[in-house]
Amino acid sequence: MSATPSLLATETEDDLRAAVRSLLTTHSAADRVLARAESGAPYDRELWKTLTGSMGLAGLLVPEADGGQGAGHREAAVVVEELGRAVASVPYLTGAVVTPATLLALPERTAEVSALLAEVAAGSTVAVLAVPLTTAPGDPLPEVTTDGGGLHGTVRSVADAAGADVLLVAADSGLYAVPAGAPGVTVTPLTALDLTRPLAAVQLDGARGTLLAPAADAAPAVRAGLLSGAGLLASEQLGLAEWCLTETVRHLKDRHQFNRPLGSFQALKHRLAQLWLDVAGIRPAATAAADLLATGEGGPAEAELAVAVAQVYASPVAVRAAEEALQLHGGIGMTWEHPVHLYLKRAKGDSVAFGGAGRHGQEVARLAELPAP
Fold it and tell me: Are 126 and 184 in contact (CB under 8 A)?
């Protein structure tokens, strides 16, 4: 029997949304995001400290017994949505969603796993899963081998690795927690389109780490972590798409041509009306994915299908919203100083993250037993 997700926001979620949006209005303004991008810093450490230390948002997925808030994917989705709306440069999706979801999916909660969970929940440790950002749930993992107790291999395009304290490495012998500064670990920043989510190559040459789980348990846990990341990525795409739509409407109301607001021209009205319909459709898809990840109703297949549907829909709509915003802002939209290019780059980067719409379209066909597209 198919599960029926709840699509209405709770009062708690509304309050959380208001608090995070208020914080980001002052702490992640466009000029600040641009300044960080130009500085080369891996992420906004001051904002991260406030989100994780003062507000405790890094521990939303972590149970209270492990030092977290004991909330769930729905609350985390609210935070991710607001971070997407501000294109905030913090490792939240990777460090506060994918990592704890991976650790919590391990069948055995060892002392090492519990200790790392507590550090992640407190925000004192940024731990990221060392897989390419484009990896979809269920995709083959990078080949990392174990030889004499040391890890060997290279993983490219790891999101937020440059600012991480710990790398979760899935090797042939199991899942390891490897300090980013340990001997034998080289993290090389890469030139990425999206400067607000930096990528890096991770090279392991005899690096040693703490074994968290054997290989048989590691692969399902990594899949669970990537599934959570893909599901909540739709909320990020919702936030950035809504910003693009809202700011474009505002601009077309204020900007005049031939003594008329640009927004009064019928051709532009039609484009914005269609864009509004498309963007509005992301919210139920993203909320359904977060809800089924949180509740587990209907079993794993229901959550996997909801996540795949959300990505198939949200990825292209977010890109189109950003493209429309860039074009309809005219000449000012083409400048570095205007923030619309940050949203287009984030939307483009998100469109290939965790497998992209094409890979998830194949999952929809498989799970719904339809012919593959």
Answer: no
